Amino acid sequence: MTIENLEARTTMLRASIGTNRQDVLALQKDIERLDAKMNPEKGNLRDLLAKRSEIEKHLSLYEQVKTFEDMIRRIADETEAEVATAVAGLSLTAVREFSGEIAKRLAEWGYPSAASVRYDRNELDIIAGDQRRSAHGKGVRAVLHAAFTLALAQYCFDRELPHPGFVVLDSPLVTYRPPDQSAESDDEPPEGVVRAFYRDIQDNFDGQVIVMENTDPLEPLGADSLDIRFTKRVDIGRYGYMPAVADEQAADTFAIEG
């Protein structure tokens, strides 16, 4: 091959390179133009993916809520079944006898219309004056609660049913006023009710009664009863229901008497 042939071939290759370079530049412009057209679609795709992720998150929360609702419904059904079983297990005879025990104790205290007071096994509450105990004022609620607690204990004692043998009554009388006596008309509960209450729990109860009250009994207690005043003083009488803790003892250390 001669030099002339090589030079001619070189010239042809250079021309081909130039043509190819122009083709490449044209293709790059086409690619850029297509990219520009595709960018909005990419943005839409990102938005769609973000919305999809948000929807999936909400669906997951919905499934969790549904799981919790099913759990609550199942627990409620089980509780209702347990209550229904307990109610079904309490015979009408037992309810009648227990209601009689409550009414008898209230009558001893001079509670108005005591004979009509009864225990409702469906409401699981005492009915007095055609109202549930929970619908009365705090004074009547306290007296009815005390009657319920004492009657339940005595009911168990008489039938040799399990019972711890003692009850604790917290302020059963201090706020009580009869229906015809307003709280403003007298700062103290009626003396007849107070005397009858303490007389009844001493004479007609076979267990131990611990009464936490803000007022003193109006009459001396019997020989088998103790009247303990909480002085809130270490050097006089009893400090409180829980004995005082000496300063040098740890704060979480308690000594329980009796």
Brief synopsis:
The protein is mainly alpha-helical. The protein is built from 4 helices and 5 strands; from the N terminus they run H-H-E-E-E-H-E-H-E. Strand 1 and strand 2 form a beta hairpin.
Give a structural overview.
By secondary structure, the chain is mainly alpha-helical. The chain has three domains: 1-89; 92-212, Rossmann fold (3-Layer(aba) Sandwich), CATH 3.40.50; 231-258, no CATH class. Helix content is 54%, strand content 7%. It is built from four helices and five strands; from the N terminus they run H-H-E-E-E-H-E-H-E. The protein has helices spanning 3-89, 92-109, 138-158, 191-203; strands at 118-120, 125-128, 131-132, 166-170, 208-212. Strands 1-2-3 form a three-stranded antiparallel β-sheet. A two-stranded parallel sheet has the order 4-5. Helix 2 crosses helix 3 (138-158). The longest helix has 87 residues, at 3-89. The protein starts with a helix and ends in a 46-residue tail after the last strand. Mean pLDDT is 80; it is low at 248-258.
